Amino acid sequence: MSEENTIETMQHEGRTFDPPKGVQQNAYVASMADYEALYARADQDPEGFWAERSRELLHWDKPFTKVLEADMTTPCIKWFGDGKLNVSANCLDRHLTDGRRNKAAIIWQGEPEDDVKVFTYQMLYTEVCRCANLLRKLGVGRGDRVALYLPMIPELAIAMLACTRIGATHSIVFAGFSAVSLQNRIDDCQAKVLLTADAVLRGGRAIPLKGNVDEALKTCPSVEQCVVVKRAGIDIRMVEGRDIWWHEAMAAEDISGECPYEKMDAEDPLFILYTSGSTGKPKGVVHTTGGYLTYAAHTTQWVFDVKDDDVYMCTADVGWITGHSYIVYGPLALGATSIMFEGVPSFPKPDRFWKIVEKFKVNIFYTAPTAIRALMREGTDWPKKHDLTSLRILGSVGEPINPEAWMWYYENVGGKRTPIVDTWWQTETGGIMISALPGATPLKPGSATRPLPGVAAAIVRADGSDAGPDEGGHLVVKKPWPGMLRGVFGDPERYRKTYFDRFPGMYEAGDGARVDKDGYFWIMGRLDDVINVSGHRLGTAEIESALVAHPSVAEAAVVGMPHHIKGQGIYAYVTLKSGIEESDGLRKELVGHVRKEIGPIATPEVIQFTDGLPKTRSGKIMRRILRKIAEGQIEDFGDTSTLADPTVITSLVEGKKDLL
Ligand code: WT7
After folding, report:
1. Residue 231 belongs to what H/E stretch?
2. Where's the AMP-dependent synthetase/ligase domain (predicted)?
3. How far apart (Å, rounded) are the C-alpha atoms in residues 491 and 556?
């Protein structure tokens, strides 16, 4: 039976998996009846529900009296508007006196197996205070932006928390992004200081990082100082007057570690994180202080059912929203123990995750379908080699998990004892929106199950009316929630247009989905020109503009193609300038060019040279056709009557055959 067939059969089989008794017994939400009651309560009285959660989970320096002021049309959203709090005080200071002072806050597993560091809450507090004092000395204050371009090392978490302590807004740029991407992001948010490292350790190699910084900073006048962490000890250039070493600067800071924190307004910006859209440059999603932290803590507690003696591990990179919310802010706000892992799943062997689970007796493990599919290919011997019985809850995020990968994860990692929470959310939502609750929700492999209490998720038709059971439509959220984005940095109009324009009064996610007769959500993927490569969002427009920036390229069109591990891969159609010869050498050069412009995550899978693209008479590229060809469906192209030149299709199909 082919892989597709297996997936198909399972989707229609409709198997469900009830929560195991052991998980159910002590869970925060311990039955479907509890879930339904909480959902109804939050629906009837959202302000009461969220105010209660926030007061229970966070320390407010000045308690809020207003809960929500929202207008989803303008849009203008304020949660806990007149309250004051500080994120680092919530993640650190209060745990110094609540019995957790000596508890591991972060267990850092470096890429080399023996490279392990444990930071207790006391130790992390001290380091954060020192770093915060250092940033203040460098002239960073409330409201300033700080860019972080760092590998998965403790300094990244320390720097984030240090920013929050002094009220600076951090903007993390994933260390896999190129110099050009870094430059765009720094320039957009006008960061004053940049923190980086000499190199990234990955797959047994040191990949230089500082060179990208030097290149990017050539055209980033806003950056006054650059602090460099020595991670690999490779040779780098330090620019006099601009670059300083982290270890030298930190050594000058008092080890008694005191740094009074700023009492921030609930709606003060906490961080900016860039994410791809269907058009133009990546947008800087803005999250604010009180609502985001409430939401991160709340979802971490309920979805992962984190208990005080649990060891919790999320394998994401802190450069993405998953790492922000579920490695750093959510777990630390709860006073939990969070593992931060620097390496990759397959190095030195495909049992790296399982080794870490065994070594630290991990109880809760959260990863992405792409990682599971990659490890699945390596066979069941790798997980079998390790004692994984400490695991109680598994999680998945980033894209729909195909039932085959779900079953493999469930059987071989969870030993059929652990629920899998498939969590749907986005950079913009700040935290998990649709997910099973491990002690309550019966699971259906491939479905993210039900919206969390307080999340008014729904499926609507193109005209905004509610879709019926099993009818595919647009995924929207009809009421505000505390973790929602508050803006696109520097571009209020883009904020409004992207999320609140098409369906008045609702948040538009950009995903297609359907809800089955049991109220379970099945996410079908993006409806816009965004593709999801290994759980990371990439705009086709961004890749196209990278391609046309190459001197040999006249025109480019990019679509997603199915990929057995990455979920989707990048398929690029390229028209060369006249006089330029097609060749494999040029193909390689173009692949390298896109990697350099955006980063290795944007590596095109296929580049097909073509003399023309399918366009309508008004010049619009018909992507529907390009998608079909990329998927290998070359029979039925539907209505092609609006094409300016229908013969283009034949030559595209011929060109595709030549590629195979
Ligand atoms: C897009 C958001 C949320 C952190 C990681 C990605 C897709 C995410 C799921 C899931 C189906 C999912 C959606 C969404 N997505 N999780 N569990 N099931 N699809 O964050 O880069 O902002 O991407 O990822 O298409 O819109 P992001």
Report:
1. none
2. 100-487
3. 27
Is residue 400 within 6 Å of ligand 1 at its C-beta?
yes
Q: What is the pTM of this model?
A: 0.95
Pocket flag, ligand 1, residue 399 (CB < 6 Å)? yes
Helix axes 46-57, 32-44, angle to 10 degrees: 110
At 93, which helix (H) or strand (E)?
Answer: none
Characterize the bridge pairing of strands 84-85 and 264-265.
antiparallel
Fill in the amino acid letter for 323. Answer: G
Distances (CA, A) of 415 to 388, 390, 412: 8, 11, 5
- The conformation of residue 409, written as its DSSP 8-state character, comes to I
Q: Which atom of ligand 1 is nearest to the CA of 510?
A: 26
Residue with tokens 């650059």: 226
- The DSSP bridge pattern shows strands 225-229 and 199-202 to be unpaired
The per-residue pLDDT for range 35-71, each reduced to its tens digit, is 999 999 999 999 999 999 999 999 999 999 999 999 9
Residue nearest to atom 8 of ligand 1 (CA): 398
Enclosing H/E stretch for 485: none
Q: 28 alpha carbon to ligand 1 midpoint, in Å?
A: 25
Q: How many whole angstroms separate alpha carbon 39 and alpha carbon 455?
A: 8
With a threshold of 0.90, tell me whether the complex ipTM lies above it: yes
Among residues 134, 267, 263, 265, which one has the least CA distance to residue 193? Answer: 134
Coil/strand/helix, residue 296: helix
Mean pLDDT of 144-152: 98
Helix axes 584-597, 179-189, angle to 10 degrees: 30
CA distance 450 to 521: 6
pLDDT single digits (tens) 440-496: 999 999 999 999 999 999 999 999 999 999 999 999 999 999 999 999 999 999 999
- Confirm if 191 and 222 have CB atoms less than 8 A apart: yes
Residue 220 corresponds to which tokens in the numbers above? 């980033």
- Residue 331 is predicted with a pLDDT of 99
Q: Residue whose CA is closest, atom 6 of ligand 1? A: 398
* 222 assigned binding-site residue: no
- Protein residue with least CA distance to atom 16, ligand 1: 398
605 pLDDT higher than 50: yes
Ligand 1 atom nearest the C-alpha of 423 is 17
User: What are the backbone angles phi and psi of residue 507, rounded to the nearest 5°?
Assistant: -90, 125
Rounded to the nearest integer, the mean pLDDT of the chain is 95
On whether 398 is known to bind a ligand per the annotation, the reply is yes
For ligand 1, say whether the CB of 275 is within 6 Å of any of its atoms: yes
pLDDT, mean of residues 419-436: 98
**pLDDT surpassing 90 at residue 1:** no
Alpha-carbon 268 to chain mean position? 22
Annotated binding-site residue? 93: no
User: Can you point out the beta strands (E) in 122-268?
Assistant: 145-149, 169-172, 193-197, 199-202, 205-208, 225-229, 243-245, 264-265
pLDDT digits (tens, 9 = 90+) for 57-109: 999 999 999 999 999 999 999 999 999 999 999 999 999 999 999 999 999 99
422 lines ligand 1 (CB under 6 A): yes
Alpha-carbon distance of 80 to 270, in angstroms, equals 15
- What letter represents residue 596's amino acid? K
Q: Compute the distance between CA of residue 554 and CA of residue 300 in angstroms, rounded to an integer.
A: 48
